[in-house]
Specification:
Number of helices: 11
Order of helices and strands: EEHHHHHHHEHHEEHEEHEE
Strand content: 5-15%
Low-confidence stretches: 1-6, 430-435
Helix content: 55-70%
Length: 471
């Protein structure tokens, strides 16, 4: 039900929708019923009129043909003197009279029928051969033919009158249909606008609250003016806003605690690696010294990544930076130096691009994207396989591809692997396990640089990721 007062207040969304559709459909149903009745009348009228026109025209032609047959039969009888021809003549005359009666009842031409009756009376006087010969040479047949021509013309004029009347009735029906359609169209439009207003008004209020929720600002606390379901939804959004604010505070507290807890053991690892590198615990071989150097470098890099990741999660929406031209070949060279031991351990080969291209980016974010992609290629790539690092210009943009040989990514996983903490069915080859956040961070970093990171088909490689950035 709808409460009518200062405002329209539908009690429920179902009631609002059902009432709106009913009000919008009611004029259409009335129009359909009216059009059906009108078209039925029009169809009957056209059918009756068409049948009458065809019958009248055909009957006039038959009367003319019969008059000509009467003349031919009478003259043949006068020449051949065959009694059967006289019998046929009287049969044709009787058929002519029957058709003439039907035509007189259908086509009103009174004076012409009187003249034709006189002609028929003259023909009925033929009872023997002498009378037939007397009439066969008479000029009265010319008068009979002239009367039939006049009858055909009168029939055609009558048919034209019927057609003109049908056109007038058709125009009347057409105007009636247009008038009804206009009334129904206006009524349906008004009812639809009322229904749209009653539906859109509370939805706009809810949309405003959702936008406020996404922007992190305080939404309106006034109740939604609409059906009970939408009012309840507005209250739920207010509750959700309060809950998200609470979770946001918990997240920041968690990140601060994680940052503090990770720095202490990581500092111990760095200190131990530095002590080994300084040979405090004893002499080292060249390979051991190189491994200590790797531990030192990667522990520092790990600390930087942890800090950057925490900053990225906290400031991804607010952090501002300036994009500058970055050398792709320099980034690729840095990756090779970082992962040289891993590549040697798996016997992997890397193909670099022949030319160096510049892209608009920020050093840390661009390095983070390429590092995640290259790390995946090394970890998931086949032993003794090849990794391709490619770049090419396409208009005002640069396409960067990191491809490798190995286990192809199933079609069902190609979008899921970009979600946070999601991993595909393939597993890393090595001691370290992935966290499932690398590709998610890489894609978000690409979008922050105005680019896009996607999975791509490649004819040479089993796995290929494509990064598109501004040149």
């Amino acid at each position: 039900m709808l409460k009518v007062g200062r405002k329209l207040h539908p009690r429920s969304l179902l009631t609002l929708v059902a009432t709106g559709y009913l009000l919008a459909l009611l004029p259409l149903l009335l129009l359909i019923w009216h059009d059906y009745s009108t078209l039925s009348r029009f169809s009957n009228m056209v059918e009756e009129g068409s049948t009458k026109v065809v019958e009248d025209t055909r009957r006039a032609i038959q009367l003319t043909n019969l008059s000509e047959e009467l003349e031919r039969t009478l003259r043949r009888y006068a020449v051949l003197e065959d009694a059967t021809l006289l019998t046929r003549f009287h049969q044709q005359l009787a058929s002519y009279r029957e058709l003439l009666v039907l035509h007189r009842n259908s086509v009103p031409v009174t004076g012409l029928y009187h003249a034709i009756e006189q002609d028929l009376s003259w023909l009925e006087g033929t009872q023997d051969l002498k009378g037939a010969k007397a009439r066969a040479d008479s000029d009265h047949f010319a008068s009979l033919n002239e009367h039939h021509q006049q009858l055909e013309e009168a029939t055609n004029a009558w048919v034209d009158t019927l057609v003109s009347g049908a056109k007038v009735r058709i125009n009347t029906l057409q105007h009636e249909l247009w008038w009804m359609s206009g009334v129904v169209g206006i009524s349906t439009t008004l009812f639809s606008l009322l229904f749209i207003y009653l539906t859109v008004r509370p939805i706009r209020q809810i949309e405003s609250r959702i936008l406020s929720l996404g922007a992190g600002i305080e939404p309106e606390r006034e109740p939604v003016d609409g059906p009970a379901e939408l009012v309840e939804l507005g209250e739920r959004l207010s509750w959700l806003h309060d809950r998200l604010q609470e979770l946001e505070q918990q997240k920041y507290r968690f990140l601060r605690h994680v940052s503090h807890e990770l720095k202490t053991p990581l500092a111990c690892l760095r200190e131990g690696a530095d002590l080994l590198s300084e040979r405090v615990a004893g002499p080292l071989t060249s390979d051991q010294y190189e491994i200590c150097g790797m531990l030192t470098d990667n522990s520092r890099r790990l600390q930087s990544l942890i800090e950057r990741l925490l900053d990225f999660n906290r400031l991804s929406q607010q952090e501002s930076f300036e994009r500058t031209p970055q050398s792709l070949l320099q980034q690729f060279t840095t990756l090779l130096e970082t992962y040289r031991l891993h590549l040697d351990a798996k016997g992997m080969r890397v193909e670099l691009p022949t030319e160096d291209l510049l892209v608009q980016g920020e050093p840390y974010r661009l390095g983070l994207i390429l590092d995640n992609l290259f790390s995946n290629a090394v970890s998931y790539g086949a032993e003794q396989g090849t990794i391709w690092l490619r770049c090419r210009r396409q208009g005002a943009r640069v396409i960067v591809e990191v491809a490798n040989e190995g286990t192809p990514i199933p079609a069902a996983d190609r979008e899921r692997i970009f979600e946070p903490f999601e991993q595909g069915s393939s597993r890393r080859q090595g001691l370290l396990k992935g966290s499932g956040i690398g590709l998610s961070i890489a894609r978000e970093s690409a979008r922050s640089l105005g680019g896009e990171l996607t999975w791509a088909d490649d004819t040479h490689a089993d796995v290929c990721f494509r990064l598109i950035l501004d040149a």
